[in-house]
Predict the structure.
Amino acid sequence: MQYLQGLTEEQQMIVTTVRDIAKNEIAPRAEAIDREGEYPWDIVNIFREAGILALPIPEEYGGAGASELTCCLVIEEVAKVCGNSGHCLCDNWLGMEPILLGGGEAVKKKYLSQLAANKIAAFCLTETEAGSDISGIQTKAVLKGDNYIINGQKIFITNGGNADVLSVFARTSADRNRGMSVFVMEKGTPGFSIGKKEEQLGMRGTPAYELIFEDCSIPGENIIGQEGEGFKTAMKVFDRSRPFDAVLGVGIAAGALQYAIDYAKERKQFGRAIADFQGLQWMMADMAIQLEAARQLVYKAAVMVDEEDPDKTMFSSMANCFATDVGVKVTNDAMQILGGYGYIKDHPLEQKMRDARLLQIVEGTNQIQRVIVARRLLES
Ligand SMILES: Cc1cc2nc3c(=O)[nH]c(=O)nc-3n(C[C@H](O)[C@H](O)[C@H](O)COP(=O)(O)OP(=O)(O)OC[C@H]3O[C@@H](n4cnc5c(N)ncnc54)[C@H](O)[C@@H]3O)c2cc1C
């Protein structure tokens, strides 16, 4: 169930189209993507052909120029049937956002058009000593002649092993925040290598990688914006990407709830469908209430991002925190409704719970989202 009031006709049409693609082409692959633990290029091709991959890229660079809300609606439909496929979209868009939000015209023209055509992006920020505290990054970029020379290491980079275009954060001076810059690097740059592929609990089709930069020389014009603007760009990116992760949680939870409802109507115990038991009815009602509250908060945050509302940062964090907590709660409850079968891989609920769990950690843990909300409350 999903209420589409308030959406434009175009948005409703996109939702219907993506729902069909999700049901017919993506859902049949969901279990295998998790089992194989490989990046699902076939799904990426489906996204390409449907024009979904380039949705947030402005039209002048070959994309659709879709709003934040429209992108969220698309992720939600995909995530209802496959968290990994939704994550493919989110993290590709996350990787291109620094270029989109912080890049000068030349960088945008060159790389956004490539990304709109067929390339994949990665967002490379986290390091061993810099997770929640992003200003602690140690990867360095030093200008030598016309080129920047990049040295350092990143960890946990989704798409790191398969991206063509990487947005790489590196230090250009010692100042914690103002010393951060961000650069575009292409796959195949000498000195750039892919390290360990992580074995993940969930979102196994979108694995994270260690990345190593050893004297990687990139043209000076590959800086995104100006030196020292990396921190500011990262913050702008998170405003836009946090609702994406949030709606991924909503989509996964919605898929889990529907599965549990269908199961409860069929499964009989004590001579009755288990859906007849009030204990489970109240559980399902609570799941639906939490889910709808999360969905509405995410849509609100997305609209605030589209409207450049001054409180968009706080709402993006609120939505991210609430919706990803709901994602874990609802998928866990859905497993419970299936009893022992929920724990078994023959049903998709244990996978949905594992996939949802990552979302409480990435793009700022849910503790960090609360720090951001509290900081905004206390400053006014
Ligand atoms: C599968 C996966 C994919 C990822 N993909 C990417 C990616 O594509 N690109 C990228 O750059 N990064 C990526 N990450 C990294 C992710 O964003 C970080 O793991 C996350 O931000 C947390 O950092 P950390 O792991 O170093 O934890 P830490 O920062 O060490 O946190 C440890 C604990 O301390 C808590 N904590 C820290 N600071 C505070 C505070 N001020 N107040 C209260 N509690 C606090 C945290 O909430 C957490 O519970 C990925 C991670 C994973 C696991």
About this structure: The mean pLDDT is 97. The chain has three domains: 9-117, 121-227, 231-379. Strands lie at 121-124, 140-144, 147-158, 165-171, 180-186, 192-197, 208-219, 268-269, 272-273. The two ends are 38 Å apart (CA to CA).
